[in-house]
Write a structure and sequence with these properties.
By secondary structure, this protein is of the alpha+beta class. The chain contains 3 helices and 13 strands.
């Protein structure tokens, strides 16, 4: 338990330091063999854009659909945001498994954003990005071709496998039954208000796995909790 708290505090302190200079919030959450990382940052070239980098950072092999990262959800404190989908592109070094590589790394036709969940997301979240419908996403919202039918977001298609995934092992759904992404996607949303600070505003982050809300989802600590933990450790270091 003590080791886990140290790990969370280290992440919190790093995020706080980064945010002070770059408008960035990054969290990593681990639950058993699952580990997700998400980074929210204001585009340095256009402050109206929010860049969300979603990574399946687990070192464990993906063996079943419930090990595949299919979405990230979050809340925003204060005034609500009216964001629109701009792009969804493979992160540097990431590839599509079991299908051809998309032109320009564009995978937007397989992912959707919903900013009107009204508490309907995991743990009552209001905002989310997903490759699976989950009963919350009617279809893709990011630009890009339909890389694998059906056009509506459905099933495991183009979910994110782990950094440590061996594509040759696991059940049929994760060894060629569906196209999957290894291991990170960069999403861009537009419509941020002036001066938006991800560290101060974004909280209740949830990583969703599999194709149903009953499958694993796990949180990162809220920003307020991280700030409090960081303050406690700063106080202990001063003493």
């Amino acid at each position: 338990m003590r080791r886990f708290i140290r790990s969370v505090c280290a992440s919190a302190i790093a995020a706080i330091g980064s945010t002070a200079s770059a408008g960035m919030l990054q969290f990593t959450s681990t639950s058993g063999n699952l580990q997700g990382t998400v980074r929210f940052e204001v585009d340095s070239m256009d402050s109206s854009k929010l860049i969300v980098t979603l990574t399946n950072s687990a070192s464990a092999d993906v063996m079943v659909p419930a090990d595949v990262l299919t979405g990230v959800f979050w809340d925003v404190s204060g005034a609500s945001l009216a964001l629109t989908s701009v792009s969804a592109i493979l992160n540097t070094g990431s590839v599509v498994l079991f299908a051809s590589q998309p032109a320009g790394g564009v995978v937007g036709g397989e992912w959707g954003y919903n900013g009107a969940l009204a508490g309907g997301g995991p743990e009552s979240t209001d905002y989310g990005i997903s490759s699976s419908g989950l009963g919350l996403f009617g279809g893709p919202t990011f630009p890009g071709p339909d890389l694998d039918p059906p056009a509506a977001l459905d099933g495991l298609n183009y979910g994110i496998t782990s950094a440590g995934d061996n594509p040759a092992t696991g059940n049929s759904a994760v060894t060629g039954g569906r196209p999957l992404i290894k291991n990170s996607v960069v999403f861009t949303l537009s419509g941020l208000p002036s001066g938006f600070d991800p560290m101060a505003r974004i909280n209740n982050i949830q990583f969703q796995y599999g194709t149903d809300l009953s499958e694993p989802h796990h949180p990162t600590p809220g920003a307020a909790s991280l700030l409090g933990i960081a303050a406690i450790f700063a106080g202990r270091r001063r003493r």
